[in-house]
Specification:
The complex is a heterotrimer.
Chain A: E1 9-15, H1 21-27, H2 32-39, E2 40-44, H3 53-58, E3 64-70, E4 73-75, H4 76-88, E5 89-95, H5 97-101, H6 103-106, H7 113-122, E6 138-141, E7 144-147, E8 151-156, E9 166-168, H8 175-186, H9 253-256, H10 274-285, H11 296-303, H12 309-313
Parallel strand pairs in A: 1-2, 1-3, 3-5, 5-9
Antiparallel strand pairs in A: 4-8, 6-7
Chain B: E1 8-13, H1 17-26, E2 35-40, H2 48-57, E3 61-66, H3 77-94, E4 102-106, H4 112-129
Parallel strand pairs in B: 1-2, 1-3, 3-4
Helix pairs in contact in B: 1-4
Chain C: E1 4-9, H1 21-29, E2 34-40, H2 46-58, E3 63-68, H3 71-84, E4 92-96, H4 98-102, H5 108-128, E5 136-138, E6 142-146, H6 150-161, E7 165-169, H7 177-181, E8 184-185, E9 190-191, H8 192-205, E10 209-212, E11 215-223, E12 226-233, H9 248-252, E13 259-260, E14 269-270, E15 273-274, E16 286-287, H10 293-297, H11 305-309, E17 322-328, E18 330-333, E19 337-339, E20 356-358, H12 359-366, E21 387-394, H13 409-424, E22 429-434, H14 444-452, E23 456-460, E24 465-469, E25 472-479, E26 484-490, E27 492-497, E28 499-501, H15 505-512, E29 539-541, H16 551-569, E30 573-575, E31 581-583, H17 593-597, E32 603-607, E33 613-617, H18 627-631, E34 637-639, H19 644-656
Parallel strand pairs in C: 1-2, 1-3, 3-4, 6-7, 6-18, 7-10, 18-29, 20-27, 21-22, 21-27, 22-23
Antiparallel strand pairs in C: 5-30, 8-9, 11-12, 12-17, 13-14, 15-16, 19-28, 24-25, 25-26, 31-34, 32-33
Helix pairs in contact in C: 1-5, 2-3, 5-19, 6-8, 6-16, 12-13, 13-14
The chains are: A alpha/beta, B alpha/beta, C alpha/beta.
Chain lengths: 330, 138, 658
């Protein structure tokens, strides 16, 4: 990327275990894409171009300047491609929540391969599979042996399988962050390796809602609140909002739509575990006003209002959190 | 399993539980050496992150002990610690980690005996539950 | 820190008998960052201290671990030692291998292994410790006393006598408080005004006391040593300097005799302009804006009579509220109590029957300066009662109203029974319905015996109901001493209501950052050892605002609070404990979680110029519990000496060893 390198920057985009939203997000930068194309040659982008893995394998090591890698590591194919692209790219960017934190695919870590296959292929009302056939890495057919990538028990983040240079969080990454990242790459103004290319502060910093104190008496689902006040902090209205524990950069877009933040920005820089931090924050202020008069039973009732703590607090970060999956009894 | 000696990390608040543990010492009340104390000023300082980290590192049990309700040196840290533990246990359940591995207790500065008893009981309980499955994964 | 010294104490045989000290020393010497590891028989002795000091210099140590007894014993000792050797006192960590190791684990191997682990944890923490500074704070040698009852008066006098300037703020037009309303005091039967008035005069005359009567504290900022106080002086509509207190205006007021007189518990009437009682300090007239015709309607006859009669030309209807600001180093809160409104207990008929009154009302009836000039009469028809019945514990010691004992009810009733006998003679019947007679104070029991001797009927039981019948009131009470149900016919019922917190104590608590207990009274820092302190450093409590008590206890507590306050005022500077919370503003987005978690109002949510929020710790208010740190969802809040990474370093060591 140095400016003396006269040619355009060589880019790759890759899509591992993810929904495809990140690819759309790249297009969401709209006309900026024209500017990008001025500076950038895209050599590999399976969703848009017909390139084969063998073409990538044929590239010289570090011949790609940048690879935006989205998606988590779910299969051996994902891991293979992560390793391959790591080798070929000078800069590997974990692009989006799946690659950075594990995201929604990572929630599968409450389960394992056997259980997932069971639900997906066998024990499912819309599936007719009397032979209980499930994917196998190797299958012999008359023509020879067929292979499939291995489906792992545990979803991993990109940096759990290869060295990652930069992270752009979000599900999908906000266009503003994408533009800024591309600008930084083009202008050679990237921060130190390992940086997250997003603001240091949480979503609350970008949220215009009034806030005063968080003394939550009762937890409510969004639909349970008759008139959600669009100008007041949602947590203060009893709605669980992950904003305080979530890295910003999104402009508090969900809050703007009067919906709570669900945490796709991942943990803030000083946080060791996004889920545990939010769990702690919420438990700290839940019933705080009358805490000295509450019986143990009343406290339990109150805390029980938090349904599915794992799904609430770790929706996007289970694979990268301190305890990254449901424990499988050995 | 009979030779399994649990490793227990104990977060003790300076004013009540830690002082209670000291009193157990002054009174020479014998209890198992499995418990490894960490002094914090208040049980309210105990972040669920610490508990998860201890479990991740392989601790078989985590004890958090603070002042009795109404006695917190800082008025209310113990209430916060209690609520955090209650919610954290629900998370542990979802992670298939036995919530009994985490225990919150009220121990006052005068309850040396109670501290010793809590440790004894907890060690027995963890022996019954068995080793932390995350042990040795790190 | 990577030049750490580890010093393991034998503590005679206390540690060494069970812990293999040499093994611990060897182990510690091999830990990352440790450059020297030594043991000594008694590390807390002068020789031990010198060993540490010499090692710090010789090995250029930047961190120290002492493995010894509990930090509660000698942390301050070793902090001093480290400081004397030129290191920051906060780069020290104690590994408690005595109380929590050698004394409780008799097995030598187990104890040694645990000691090693504790030392390893301490070293891991010291590696991440940072030097901390004890901030010095200059002390403003002035005091604010809130409340001008007997407790506030006593505290003001004590502090002013010690040479400190005192601002005494009283919300009523006069100081004196509840005690000024009393006729006699138990158990000595001293005349309340006779013993109170001289003290009130002292307040008025003391050069160090600045009295703000008819004023209220509206805001308090800052912290121990330097509180910024704002007081609102309510308009009296009377020029304070010109008014001579002659009372001419009081006599000519067109509302005279029409306004319920709160000093007399509304049993008498006053005018719109009034002086609450003859001994009032300051002795100045006050115009009640709610009642004054001129202030309400802009017209009072042809011209306001008070204005016409006042030779000093003191009446000033243009007066406005005045905001006064000053700084003090300490605050003594002595805002007293309210009596429970007995209407809350419907069965006693308080607001329904005129002849059901409270002890404070009876006090005014007995007082010669009261509404009846000391004539004890039934309010309904002004006749002398033939029978008076006291009902004790009205709302007190009652799970449904106030769980606590009012501590003065029994003695008040006994005193009043005595005074009734004295005033009304032998033919009045006196009944006392009690739960237990609590005569616990000095000479109280003797007083109680004396009353039993003056023909008083005692019923041990709580009356179920006060009923009005044609020929007067009747009370049903089941006497648990005789197991009989009595129906008492009586003319006057005197209720002894519970003592409750002032109705504005919640607001005042918020203004002062002083917490209240579940009962609503201000909470002392420790019920036994710090009964006058609050959890807010530099703010003390005295008298009934802390909980029910009698005059002697209020005075004693007030003097105690003044003495505690003087400890601070007599210092030029204070050193603040540095182990407190702090916000890294680069990471804080002002979500305000910490604000709600802090019990000490030590965290402020600031709105910055760009309309963004950030939390800020008021350092002097922070007690260093760390609740906000654990609650902070972003990790922006940390605690000095107990930062996340510092604690996690220990967790990793202790949790990781099987």
């Amino acid at each position: 990327m140095s400016s003396e390198n006269k040619g355009k920057l060589k880019f790759a985009f890759y899509w591992a275990a993810s929904c495809g939203g990140c690819e759309i997000a790249v297009l969401d930068i709209n006309e900026k894409i024209l500017e990008v194309v001025e500076h950038v040659d895209i050599l590999f982008w399976p969703v848009a171009m017909d390139t084969k893995y063998s073409d990538v394998e044929a590239m010289d090591d570090e011949s790609l300047d940048v690879c935006f890698f989205n998606g988590a590591i779910r299969t051996s194919e994902n891991e293979h491609m992560a390793k391959l692209l790591r080798k070929k790219a000078k800069i590997l960017v974990a692009f989006g929540s799946c690659a950075a934190d594990g995201c929604i695919p990572g929630l599968a870590n409450v389960s394992n391969r056997e259980e997932i296959f069971d639900v997906a292929y066998v024990d499912n009302p819309s599936t007719d599979n009397p032979g209980k056939v499930t994917p196998k890495t190797k299958t012999r057919v008359s023509e020879g042996e067929l292979t499939l990538p291995e489906f792992y028990d545990t979803v991993k983040t990109l940096d759990q399988v290869v060295d990652v240079d930069y992270y752009i969080p979000g599900c999908p990454p906000p266009t503003k962050l994408i533009s800024q990242a591309i600008d930084a790459i083009v202008e050679n103004k990237l921060p130190p390796k390992g940086s997250v290319l997003a603001p240091l502060k949480s979503v609350c910093d970008e949220c215009p809602r009034e806030r005063s104190e968080k003394k939550i008496k009762e937890i409510k689902r969004v639909y349970e609140v008759e008139n959600v006040d669009p100008n007041v902090c949602l947590l203060e209205q009893g709605i669980i909002c992950m904003g305080p524990a979530t890295r910003g950069g999104c402009g508090a877009a969900c809050l703007d739509a009067n919906m709570p933040c669900t945490g796709c920005g991942g943990p803030t820089p000083n946080s060791f575990d996004q889920g545990a931090k939010m769990l702690s924050a919420l438990a700290s202020v839940l019933g705080v006003e009358n805490e000295e008069n509450m019986s143990e039973e009343e406290i339990r009732k109150l805390v029980d209002q938090v349904k599915d703590p794992l799904g609430t607090f770790y929706r996007y970060t289970l694979p990268r959190s301190l305890i990254n999956r449901r424990v499988i009894k050995k | 399993m009979s030779d399994f000696e649990p490793n227990i990390v104990a977060f003790l608040c300076n004013w009540c539980a830690y002082a209670g543990a000291d009193l157990a010492g002054t009174s020479r009340l014998i209890y198992p050496a499995n418990v490894k104390p960490i002094r914090v000023m208040c049980s309210g300082r105990v972040d669920p992150v610490f508990v998860l980290e201890a479990l991740k590192k392989g601790a078989d049990g985590v004890l958090i002990a603070g002042c009795h309700p109404g006695d917190c040196h800082y008025q209310s840290g113990n209430y916060k610690a209690n609520r955090r533990v209650i919610l954290l246990k629900e998370l542990l359940q979802q992670l298939n980690i036995n919530p009994r591995r985490v225990r919150f207790e009220y121990v006052s500065a005068s309850e040396g005996q109670k501290f010793a008893n809590v440790v004894k009981e907890f060690v027995e309980e963890i022996k019954e539950i068995g080793p932390n499955p995350l042990r040795g994964e790190q | 820190m990577d030049r750490i010294g580890v010093f393991v104490c034998h503590c005679g045989v206390n540690i060494a008998a069970t812990v293999d000290v040499d093994e611990v020393v060897d182990f510690a010497g091999k830990l990352d960052g440790v450059v020297v590891s030594k043991s000594y028989k008694y590390m807390c002795s002068d020789n031990g201290a010198n060993l540490i000091k010499e090692s710090i210099k010789k090995f250029k140590l930047d961190g120290v671990v002492v493995a010894s007894c509990s930090p509660q014993m000698h942390e301050h000792t070793f902090r001093r030692v480290v400081e004397e050797a030129g290191l920051n006192p906060f780069v020290l960590e104690i590994a408690n291998i005595r109380e929590q190791c050698s004394w409780v684990h008799p097995d030598r191997k187990e104890a040694t292994e645990k000691a090693k682990l504790l030392v390893k944890g301490a070293v891991a923490k010291v590696r991440l410790l940072e030097p901390l500074v004890r901030e010095k704070v200059k002390v403003t040698p002035k005091a604010l006393v809130v409340g001008g009852g007997i407790a506030g008066i006593q505290a003001s006098l004590d502090l002013s006598e010690k040479g400190f300037h005192v601002y005494l703020v009283e919300k009523e037009p006069s100081i004196g408080g509840r005690m000024a309303q009393l006729d006699k005091t138990f158990p000595t039967l001293d005349c309340a005004s006779c013993i109170l008035t001289p003290k009130m005069m002292d307040v008025k005359n003391h050069p160090n006391i600045e009295l703000f009567a008819y004023s209220e504290v509206v805001s308090v900022d800052g912290s121990i040593g330097n509180y910024r106080v704002k007081v609102v002086r309510k308009p009296r509509y009377v020029d304070f300097d010109k008014c001579t207190g002659c009372g001419d205006c009081v006599n000519v007021c067109r509302m005279k005799g029409k306004v319920p007189d709160e000093f007399n518990m509304n049993l008498g009437k006053r005018g719109a302009v009034y002086i609450p009682f003859p001994q009032a300090i300051p002795l100045k007239a006050t115009i009640d804006p709610e009642q004054c015709l001129f202030l309400r309607y802009g017209k009072c006859g042809r011209s306001p009579a008070c204005q016409d009669v006042c030779e000093a030309e003191a009446i000033d209807f243009t007066q406005r509220e005045e905001l006064v600001e000053f700084e003090v180093g300490v605050i003594v809160v002595a805002t007293g109590y309210d009596l429970l409104d007995p209407s809350a207990l419907y069965e006693y008929g308080y607001s329904r029957y005129k002849d059901v009154i409270t002890t404070l009302e009876l006090e005014r009836l007995i007082s010669s300066s009261g509404p009846t000039g000391g004539e004890i009469v039934c309010p309904s028809d002004q006749r002398k009662p033939g029978s008076v019945t006291f009902v004790l514990c009205v709302g007190s010691r009652d799970e449904t109203v106030c769980t606590w004992c009012c501590r003065v009810g029994c003695m008040t009733a006994l005193k009043q029974a005595y005074l009734l006998r004295e005033h009304l003679g032998d033919d009045v019947e006196i009944n006392i319905c009690y739960t237990d007679i609590r005569s616990f104070g000095k000479r109280y029991e003797e007083f109680y015996r004396r009353i039993r001797g003056v023909k008083t009927n005692f019923f041990r039981g709580r009356p179920s109901e006060v009923k009005e019948k044609k020929d007067g009131l009747t009370i049903d009470v089941f006497d648990t001493m005789t197991n009989k149900l009595f129906e008492i016919k009586t003319d006057l019922v005197v209720l002894v209501p519970a003592v409750v917190p002032r109705n504005d104590s919640s607001d005042l608590g918020k203004i002062l950052h002083v917490s209240r207990g579940a009962d609503g009274f201000f909470l002392e820092a420790h019920p036994k050892l710090k009964p006058m302190d609050t959890f807010t450093d530099g703010i003390f409590i005295a008298g009934c605002c802390q909980g029910p008590k009698d005059i002697q206890d209020s005075v004693a507590q007030a003097s105690g609070a003044a003495s505690r306050a003087a400890n601070i005022l007599s210092k030029e500077e204070l050193e603040a404990e540095p182990l407190i919370a702090f916000v890294d503003e680069d990471f804080c987005s002002g979500c305000a979680t910490c604000v709600s978690v802090c019990s000490f109002n030590a965290i402020e949510l600031m709105k910055k110029e760009d309309n963004k929020y950030v939390a800020r710790v008021v350092e002097a208010l922070c007690k260093g519990c760390g609740s906000c740190v654990a609650a902070c969802p972003s990790g922006a809040m940390q605690q000095k000496g107990f930062k996340d990474d510092q604690i996690l370093a220990v967790v990793d060591v202790l949790g990781g060893e099987a």
